[in-house]
Amino acid sequence: MDITAPVTSFTGLSSEALAGEIRLTLTNFVEARDLAVSAASHAVRRAITLGELFETAALRFPGNFTEWCETNFPDIGRMTVWRFRKVWRQRAQLMRDEPVPARLKDAYVALGMLPPPDQEPGNAEGTRPLYTFRLVVSGDKPIADWPKIDLIEFVDKTKPLADLRDQAMERLAALN
Q: Inter-axis angle of helices 15-33 and 40-60, to 10 degrees?
């Protein structure tokens, strides 16, 4: 697999064929993920392929991609799809380090999508806080430099948080 190739490998597929290719690769990904550690880097490579497939679908269905995913892959959450796409987009960074991360979670940590295990939120007593919020979009770039797809994902992912804040503000006003 040429990890530096642009997203073109799957552009000629019909919608049904693209969904079928994603299903097949997803099945292969799940099998690879569940193998022993010696085969775990295979899961990372499958995640890269899934990312390419989902990126192809996102380009094919602008504005309807989330709905398309929910229809074709109801058991896969938006965050999982986002992570696959992010692994695809940042594959060069991931693959330049040898060895390739053995587990997908290690790949997510290496790409800054998850915090390292020793930096997960908690306090001195070892308890977790009431809530945590971590959203990684476009790395540390200023928002003016974010690509459109990351802006859309950010707005989509933070809407529940904004709604919750509005409800809390209304409740505070009612208490005063």
A: 160
